[in-house]
Amino acid sequence: MTGVSTGLILAAALAATDAAAGTFTFDKSHTEVRASWDHLGLSRQSARFNDVSGRLDFDPENPEAARAEVTIKVASVSTGVAALDNHLTRTKDYFDASAHPMITFRSEGVRLTGDKSAEMSGALTINGITKPVTLGVVWNYLGPHPLGTVNPTLKDVTVAGFSARTQILRSEWGIARTIPLVSDEIRISIEAELQLEPLQTGSAN
Known about the structure:
By secondary structure, the chain is mainly beta. The protein is built from two helices and eleven strands; from the N terminus they run H-E-E-E-E-E-E-H-E-E-E-E-E. Strands 1-4-5-7-8-9-10-11 form an eight-stranded antiparallel β-barrel. Residues 1-17 and 200-205 have low confidence and may be disordered.
């Protein structure tokens, strides 16, 4: 990375304190939800969900008021093994995708744990079953897009970045096949980039 590009990114980061509050939508091309599990005590294996959408209402001056809604398309799961992907989504042994094609999360509260960290509690729905979960969230960035000075399409675009982690027991959502050979415990990691929605203006009558 050149000194010029590094300087541009640093300048954008310094401008983050002037960022506006509002509703942010997920940038699908730069958002990843990954689940991992213990496989037979031999290794940890993982799957990535490639179709994640949703919104976040966020005010940097009042982060405890943040609210998030996330939808994950079950059929977008990718393990790198086609036969396993089919088994996960086209049978009822794991995800009942034909009846419940979406995984959803709706936040219910935020508790700050540091200057840029928090616990976000909410309801996670898988296979039509809703259970509470708590995400450990880190706020990475909020401000002008770091590439806005070199890419005209990103000029005046405000972005935010967050990382989150949680751990669940899949059996609580009715996914119990192969336990305990394959772990009940599932670790979930989220890396998300979001864009601030433009303000909506009313049309003239």
